[in-house]
Amino acid sequence: MIAPGASPVLDVVPLARRHLRRVLAIERRAYPSPWTERVFQDELAQVRAGARDYLAGLVDGEVVGYAGMLYADAEAHLTNVAVHEAWRGRGVATELLLELAWLARRRGCAAMSLEVRRTNAAAQALYRRFGFVPAGTRRRYYENVDDAIVMWLADLQGDVVAARLGTIEAGRP
Question: What is the pLDDT of residues 30-60, one digit of tens each?
């Protein structure tokens, strides 16, 4: 429990099986077609194989958000970012995305990509802050109804991206 008047501290850690109960609760509230526990277990197996990275954002030991990324050749693809509704707008997604971007850079990835729901303006703004730009549309991508905007962050190894990530880090509270 956070003491009255204290600022909560967010810890970003590798996602583990012990986090899945809370992750699944967030997943069910965040997405109309949530991933199952089995999907997350399969993804965590891919982490052990070096093909994925998944992170959990913890406050006082409780999962308040999570994010994941897969690797294909020299590219990283953001698979999901979700934050408990009580913690949205407080920098959790920023911290998770920041750590994933640094992981992709350390791995030597040339670029990052993602899909975002056309109607999710808040997520699009977050991704633009990191330098992602729209590159196309996947029609009826979500639940065979909503379109997705495909976004790319090119030149992940470049100085411009490193400076942008540094600026985001420097703006932390």
Answer: 998 899 999 999 999 999 999 999 999 999 9
Domain count, the chain: 1
Within a domain: 51? yes
Give the ranges where the chain is alpha helix by DSSP (H). Answer: 20-30, 37-48, 92-107, 121-129, 159-170
- What is residue 145's predicted lDDT score, i.e. its pLDDT? 86
Give the residue numbers annotated as catalytic, written as ranges. 115, 127
Structural domain of 135: 10-170
The CA-CA-CA angle for residues 162, 148, 131, to 5°, reads 15
In a domain, 4, yes or no: no
What pTM value is reported for the model? 0.93
Q: Does some domain include residue 101? A: yes
Contact assessment for residue 41 and residue 17, using Cβ atoms and an 8 Å cutoff: yes
Residue 55 within any structural domain of the chain: yes
